[in-house]
Amino acid sequence: MAVEIITIGDEVCRGDIVDSNKSRIADNLTKLGLLVQWHTSCRDVTEDIRQAIEIATARAQVVICTGGLGPTTDDITVDVLCEVLGSEWKYDPQAKAILEKRYEAIGREPTELTLRQVRIPAVAAPIANPVGMAPGSQMTIGNAQVFSLPGVPRELEAMLPEVGDKLKGSFELSAIPEITYRTFGATESGMAKRLSSIEKSNPNLSFHYRASIPEISLRIAGEQVALDNVDAEIREAIGKYIITTDQRPMGQVLGEILAGEKVAVAESCTAGLLGALFTKAGGSSKYFEGGVIAYSNQVKIQQLSVSEKTLEQFGAVSEACVKEMAQGVSERFNTPWGLSISGIAGPSGGTEEKPVGTVWIACYGNGEVTTQKIFYPRSREKIRLVACYSAMALLMRRLKSR
Q: CA 300, CA 305: separation in Å to the nearest integer?
């Protein structure tokens, strides 16, 4: 079955925003067993939208459009759909009632311009918008089922489950089983090399790699039995890099492995980012105690008991310094585990001996300190993020090796 996605908006075509709607829709459709064959973007121009819809409905059986459903004069998707359908528009009664009630609550009446956003083609079925004002709609154009949805990402996401239910009611869909391994620490090519023999011996499975710094995701699709059988081989080949096979943040995964123990962090160049990653999920107080942002040497000395001699002899970006930082934060917060990071994130501050991208990390626990030196000469943001993931990965290795 052919599927096409159309995203409508000048801001999309100009590059003012990242068009995340395409990937969001495609991901939902893939999970239903529908493979998207075409992605189209067009401006808020009547002729452009008409052509995109006519081309899509001539070659696809399912077309999902987003954008152009707002209250302003450049929101013309409903008008173009009505032209293509040879239909008038109508107000969606439920959406109109909600809009009028909101205006009544503030002692005002909605204008004709405001009411534009609750219009749908008269021959279309409405799709409720649980988090916004503009309803979506479903209609048939030629042999294609067409869905028109808002372009606001959170509204679109809230409406996709109903679209999925409608598609399952209209077509016999069979979701393709798949599993995604989220990894850190290996390159995309390096991981593909490690898995090449497994991939060759499993031609009935499709392997897909995706880099999204700092993680590399491996998605494998195929029959469930084959997925179950290959799992042990995958873990044998790349197990030390696997974070999880679900959507849990890495900090939460670590929290569950900590199993009641707590960790504290000492951060220099990452300036609180590591703590933020540990607390991304709710309930993180069960495993995260706190941290110290030790950006200056004075804070390292006063708050983490790093010795002046260490700083004078080796500098802040050194193995000796991060060892004392990790132990110092563990003792300060009375936690079994302490993590520390100190590095040069740039763009300035690097030297020939310690260039930008040089980072030292340490993990303290059970009276032992494990260290790792990283050299990742990228942007400041990426250096800091990779440093944090490296610190968490170091803790994960320590915990799993117990």
A: 7
| Strand ranges inside 198-261, DSSP E | 206-212, 215-221, 242-244
How, if at all, do strands 89-91 and 263-267 pair?
unpaired
Q: List the one residue out of 105, 106, 57, 103 whose CA is nearest residue 117.
A: 103
Could you tell me which CATH number the domain at 3-170 has? 3.40.980.10
103, pLDDT greater than 90: yes
Secondary-structure class of domain 178-244 per CATH: alpha beta
Distance (Å, whole) CA 367 – CA 336: 9
pLDDT in tens, 8-42: 999 999 999 999 999 999 999 998 999 999 999 99
Q: Which of 67, 31, 247, 40 is nearest to 156 (CA)?
A: 67
Structure tokens, 213: 């710094």
* Cβ atoms within 10 Å, residue 187: 10
CATH superfamily of this structure's domain 250-400: CinA-like (3.90.950.20)
In eight-state DSSP terms, residue 176 is: P
Q: Sort 224 into a burial class: Cβ within 10 Å, 0-12 / 13-18 / 19+.
A: exposed
Q: Comparing C-alpha atoms, which of 388, 297, 381, 376 is closest to residue 341?
A: 388
How much is the mean pLDDT over the chain? 97
Which residue, among 260, 378, 270, has the nearest Cα to 322 in the 3D structure? 270
CA distance 234 to 24: 27
**Predicted pLDDT of residue 303:** 98
What residue spans define the domains of the chain?
Answer: 3-170, 178-244, 250-400
The fraction of the chain above a pLDDT of 70, given in percent, is 100
145-182 per-position pLDDT tens digit: 999 999 999 999 999 999 999 999 999 998 889 999 99
Q: ∠ CA 120-122-123 to the nearest 5 degrees?
A: 110
